[in-house]
Amino acid sequence: xxxxxxxxxxxxxxxxxxxxxxxxxxxxxxxxxxxxxxxxxxxxxxxxxxxxxxxxxxxxxxxxxxxxxxxxxxxxxxxxxxxxxxxxxxxxxxxxxxxxxxxxxxxxxxxxxxxxxxxxxxxxxxxxxxxxxxxxxxxxxxxxxxxxxxxxxxxxxxxxxxxxxxxxxxxxxxxxxxxxxxxxxxxxxxxxxxxxxxxxxxxxxxxxxxxxxxxxxxxxxxxxxxxxxxxxxxxxxxxxxxxxxxxxxxxxxxxxxxxxxxxxxxxxxxxxxxxxxxxxxxxxxxxxxxxxxxxxxxxxxxxxxxxxxxxxxxxxxxxxxxxxxxxxxxxxxxxxxxxxxxxxxxxxxxxxxxxxxxxxxxxxxxxxxxxxxxxxxxxxxxxxxxxxxxxxxxxxxxxxxxxxxxxxxxxxxxxxxxxxxxxxxxxxxxxxxxxxxxxxxxxxxxxxxxxxxxxxxxxxxxxxxxxxxxxxxxxxxxxxxxxxxxxxxxxxxxxxxxxxxxxxxxxxxxxxxxxxxxxxxxxxxxxxxxxxxxxxxxxxxxxxxxxxxxxxxxxxxxxxxxxxxxxxxxxxxxxxxxxxxxxxxxxxxxxxxxxxxxxxxxxxxxxxxxxxxxxxxxxxxxxxxxxxxxxxxxxxxxxxxxxxxxxxxxxxxxxxxxxxxxxxxx
Length: 666
Fold this sequence. Notes:
Blueprint: H1 13-21, H2 31-40, H3 47-54, H4 58-68, H5 82-89, H6 91-106, E1 111-112, E2 115-116, H7 117-138, H8 143-151, H9 155-165, H10 180-191, H11 195-205, H12 210-213, H13 226-242, H14 248-259, H15 263-284, H16 290-313, H17 318-333, H18 342-368, H19 374-396, E3 408-420, H20 423-429, H21 432-452, E4 456-461, E5 464-471, H22 479-499, E6 507-523, E7 526-532, H23 534-549, E8 553-556, H24 557-560, E9 566-575, E10 583-591, H25 597-614, H26 618-631, H27 636-650, E11 660-662
Parallel strand pairs: 6-8, 9-11
Antiparallel strand pairs: 1-2, 3-5, 3-6, 4-5, 6-7, 8-10, 9-10
């Protein structure tokens, strides 16, 4: 900022503060809001009195109703009347929230000279929501008051601009990027007063509660209250969200050191803030683009990860690379007890906590966002790189792996397993180097659909791939994304095999949806980020069932739900090898818009034949399965059931049989 002439309003700094306390040069709040402050403080005032007053301002009525039914007040039953909304909020919260809404309305939006009002209120909303969530977790102050205190924390900056800078010439700029200390020093040097002092006087004039007013005190004040400390931490986070500098790692470390909040809780608080911001922004009539704001934060996490990666692998540090190489060589030649070089130990210690912070944030984002979210897709890339660095750390320092967080989280997800036919024959007849090149091309082809539809490649062994789609709850529809990826893999592999004159790898796929544990699995010097649970085993069994049914993609009933727009057919109930519960199995055929009348007719006939099979009407079932084979002579499920009917015709399964097919082979 350029130095400008001190504005004194024909008096001393104390005179300025006294005049502000008296309302001089302050925006005028709405008459309804001012009256609300008086009524809400009156012990004899009833909810009906408040309803009568608020209804005089239709805009305020609508916004308070929206606020009462937003994520801000998390209750099961919505408020249907203004009186219910007032009861839900409470008189004290109603007072300060009405003041806040009115305060927001008194200032312009958009950019006025060097002041970007839109950005100011957007930053303020994120800061307010962070303060609210921090207060809920710490339980040392009222979350509603923390929201308002965070919202108006820098309100003095707007008044400071109006008084000191608005009419100045010479290209004066408002820079919101400096730390609070830098900003306050600049203001004091240039005008003899800082915006926090102005904000304190203004909030007192507007009759905000004293504990909210006291948050205007500077962070060096020894009498700082818990609410003020929460507001200042929230300010640090809002700077990370929006300003040029990152500070992502520093503010997370500060949360742990000064507030005892671990990284997992902080990640939950950050994502809760982003989940709630759109509702609150609509109420306050502030423009917010949640997706873009989240992407900006993920970009900062990626920036921090790149700094970590540079410390580990930077090609401009030959001495460091030589140390790593020598250490690995000594370990491989000896008994694994080589001394860990002090330089490498220093590097390891420097990156452990930042790496845990970045990978923890990326993991939480992957688990909570929708599959088509750009933020989730970006976070998956970050997570893969973080895991690469973690494995490198484990490799160079197997005796120092206490930093690796092996805790896991329970999430909902889809597991997709693939397996390539003819791989064994292929591997026996190809030179290893040639096979390696071929497999790289193969995996490049099947990885692309997974990543395109928001999946994460979790594991690759030989010719098999496991990919996952994860969500924080069962209501987020990731099933369709996974199923579309499966269809694209089959289509891509068809093209891949046609383009290869001598080699081909037809690929089978199995998908299952359910709860799983997601985290780093391993020991000593090797960890992998992967799912654990029955979902993995079931997806593998479904993939193997393709071999016997002559199909390419099989999904469980759990994965089949909510996948409109895809042509499927039910193939019955199967008790697969190693499973104690039967699975209802479906075949994925194609997108409905790419289907044909022939395929639709085959599915209808097969469905009728399957019902006859369940009724033990063997001859009728055989006839209809043959009709299906007349449409497609290579229809695997029709061939399978036709043979099964022939067997059951002479060896009936018994009266208690209910159509279950037993499979003992994997």
